[in-house]
Amino acid sequence: MCGIVGYIGKADATSVLINGLRRLEYRGYDSAGLAILDGDRVLISKSPGKVANLKEQTRLAWSPELCHRVGTGIAHTRWATHGPPTEVNAHPHLDQSEDIALVHNGIIENYRPIRARLEGIGHHFYSETDTEVLAHLIGECDKGDLFQAVCDALHQVKGTFGIAVLSAREPGKIITARRGSPIVIGVGDGETIIASDASAIVAHTQRVVYLDDNDIAIVTADSVEIRDLNNVPVTREIAELGIDAAAAEKGGFGHFMLKEIHEQPESLGNAIRGRLDMDLGSSVLAGMGTSPRDLAELNRVVLVGCGTSLHAGLVGEYAFEDMADVHAEVEQAAEFRYRNPLLGSRDFVIAISQSGETADTLAAVREAKQKGAFVMSLCNVVGSTIARETGRGVYLHAGPEISVASTKAFTSQVAVLLMMALKLGRGRRLSLDEGNRFAKEIEAIPALVGRVILQSARIAELAKEYYQAQHAFFIGRGPMYPVALEGALKLKEISYIHAEGYHAAELKHGPIALLEKGTPIIALACDIPGKDKTLGNIEECRARGARILGIITEGDDEAAEYMDDYIAIPRSNALVSTIPAVVALQLFAYHVANLRGCEIDQPRNLAKSVTVE
Ligand code: G6P
Hints:
By secondary structure, this protein is of the alpha/beta class. 37% of the residues lie in helices and 23% in strands.
């Protein structure tokens, strides 16, 4: 979604800003822009489309000296919410005096009445955005102190914001603030970088400060001073990022998605390592903050998330009920937050979010805390808002996931959920032996996934038989049902083939009407309970001319008979095999999309982190 970069220091601001925006490209956007200070004026350059367009446009419009001016600037990648992705709607936006420039993530909900009021006193607006209204409001509040003007303006707005503001009247500083939209400040040596996402900072420094909601900071090249919106100083610790700049590069792969698929043996290893205790037949997840009594008295587990994280939650639902004998349910976070959910202190609410910033999941966390539930999170991004607000949970340690379509975060989410289920199970009904067996299955996951990845070239060959399809159905049962949903999501996200995931038994209740000769059915038919029934459903599809691509267990000749094509994954426990199965589907989606020439890492209309409702 939208991205912010701000820079103040000894380097050439335009280059730093453009490089920072490039690091944010993976989040998804449709236009970009930047502003720098040039003496007593603000210079702006904007462009629809890619950051490369912005770079070229700036090079053509500005002198080489300006393009390399040392100093202060702010920049933005926009994912359109108010008005189409045109140059005029792109950020930064100026105030009426054209001395103040603003970049903004989030939504100002009451921008219409503010705009009407400002128009009534002579303000003229060029764009359709809520952001330009906020820029004008700051200008209107500015009586010679930019910091105070931003505070006063923010007191008048409703909604969410992560902002960076500069003024030609007060060079040498940037004001930045947040409410509901992340801001990280990188503290360098004689330079400070502001960003909405740490990936724009890693090239400069590992030392960062995360703003909390309603924090506002005065940033110079050598200092960061944080206050609240009432001008009361607040202290925020400097944290270490711990992200390797090289991890944000493609490392020889054609796409980040392929690189991240291949990283899974390692990312899963990082999620699992040190968290299994074979003597106790359990897992060690101290971050969950549960006591033996909490586990014994547990009433229910509620898993909330969006998109791929929601699908991970669905696998978790099976795991908690099977392993821990506890009632578990999964809810789409946007629904949960508005449904007035019934919760109590014996209910665990587990918020699942790769980014830790998804607006609906964050709101679900706040609702669950409000209701007194035992709330924890499962995030990948360390220090993200959801991780911090829950204060309890488990990090995935999957490393930065750049591809918009989530792969390694999903498999790590499932692995951690399995370990959580093991821990709960051991606290409730699982024997030492049962716990030990399951722990050993979990420990083997990275190796199982490695064996699937070795089949990438073969899956690329298979993809040639399917890449021209217009529709595809993914079917599965039990824990393979969410894998079918996730496989369909991956295919549609990156290849734009219309794909649906269904419970294998559900197909005949409607979708079967759409089957024609050659319609692809991707069937999760591993050798786990329910396989025979799934094979029956496959027969129904074959009888109607569908082409069947099976995900089966290695050596299962019976299942192979039912398939036109198949990918075999190593034998394992039903819950564990969801992970190698989904990796096979990730590779399938990748190779299909590659054959179709799609823009795999940044699919159209999608954003990596959705910070609006
Ligand atoms: C966006 C992304 C998805 C992701 C979802 C939830 O829609 O495109 O890949 O699954 O957000 O993101 P989260 O960061 O909360 O896991």
